[in-house]
Design a protein that fits this description.
The chain has 193 residues and is an all-alpha fold. It has a domain at 2-122. The chain is 94% helix and 0% strand. Helix 1 (3-56) packs antiparallel against helix 2 (61-122) and helix 2 packs antiparallel against helix 3 (128-192). The protein is elongated, with a radius of gyration of 30 Å. This is Phasin (PHA-granule associated protein). Residues 6-105 form the Phasin domain. Pfam families: Phasin_2. It comes from Bordetella genomosp. 13.
């Protein structure tokens, strides 16, 4: 069997392996999301049962107000934690897919480099300038890809940092609002006493 059909078969096998790895990464992420949602549903049902039992025991309107105010902060914290978990899962899947894509691109670049080297060895006399121009173009394309890749990674890091800052600010605002509401609920109670 000649080298060319073997190379074609090897490339097809590598492509299939990459496809299978990408599907595995996506399925793993989906599985993690389903697991997270099942845990959230179970915890929500358990908490609703517990809070319902507590609410049934309340008699004083001020206790009811304090009870409802106390529900706000944990809800906000749980929503933020849930969003963070979902983000982490999606970011993990994205990281795996980017890694697979980078490996595929690196392999393709290597194959193109090898093809250009093979071409330069078998090029007829007088074509040295065309081969040199082809090598230069290849080097420029590789350099441009590396620059774009670095810029995309930096942009992703900035986006993640901004998302974390926004989540922390939202959490702080929710906590401050819950504390202010709790103080407002307790203030009339003290005045009445």
């Amino acid at each position: 069997m000649s080298a060319i059909p073997q190379q074609v078969l090897a490339r097809q096998k590598a492509s299939i392996n990459t496809l299978v790895a990408a599907q595995a990464a996506l399925f793993s992420g989906f599985e993690k999301l389903v697991d997270l949602n099942m845990k959230v549903v179970k915890a929500t049902i358990d908490e609703a049962a517990q809070k319902s039992a507590q609410a049934a025991e309340l008699k004083d309107p001020q206790d009811v107000a304090a009870f409802t105010t106390g529900l706000v902060q944990p809800g906000a914290e749980k929503a933020l934690a849930y969003g963070k978990h979902v983000y982490d899962i999606v970011a993990g899947v994205q990281t795996e897919l980017v890694k697979l894509a980078e490996e595929q691109i690196a392999e393709s670049q290597q194959q193109v480099t090898e093809a250009v080297e093979q071409l330069s060895k078998n090029a007829p006399a007088g074509s040295e300038s065309a081969v040199a121009m082809l090598k230069s173009s290849l080097a420029t394309a590789n350099s441009a890809y590396e620059s774009l890749s670095k810029a995309a990674k930096q942009a992703a890091e900035v986006a993640e940092s901004n998302m974390n800052a926004a989540a922390n600010a939202t959490f702080k605002a929710a906590t401050d609002a819950a504390e202010a509401a709790g103080k407002a609920t307790r203030a009339p109670r003290r005045a009445a006493a």
